[in-house]
Write a structure and sequence with these properties.
Elements (H helix, E strand, L loop, with lengths): L2 H4 L19 E5 L6 H4 L5 E5 H6 L4 H23 L8 H16 L1
Antiparallel strand pairs: 1-2
């Protein structure tokens, strides 16, 4: 997992059972599955989750959604869900710009 996703706690609250877990025991949980390229790197879609919720409870999506509504509102969730099946083709430089941006956040 890339370092920025693991440092997600800088950008918002932790979800589900994540609070109190050591950094090494957290995953980057996705509300919309990461197999959907259109929302894979959307910061509203990625939040810290404990290994158990993310890996063995299939993201614990009911609780995830409840907490996500508190963070981005119902409208934000509707936007994520609307983007879910969008077709996305991103050029290489888009990824390179994102990598540079997130490396800068980590080094701060």
């Amino acid at each position: 997992m890339d370092p920025f996703k693991r440092h997600r706690r800088w950008l918002g609250p932790l979800y589900l059972l994540s609070e109190g877990f050591p950094f090494e025991k957290l995953d980057a949980g996705h509300y919309i599955p990461s197999t959907k390229l259109s929302t894979r790197y959307d910061e509203d879609n990625i939040n810290a989750q404990c290994h158990s919720c993310n890996r063995f409870k299939h993201g614990n999506l009911i609780e995830y959604r409840i907490n996500l509504v508190k963070k981005i509102g119902e409208g934000g969730i509707e936007l994520l869900e609307a983007k879910r099946n969008d077709t996305v083709k991103r050029p290489r430089d888009w990824y390179e710009e994102k990598i540079a941006y997130y490396k800068g956040l980590i080094s701060e």
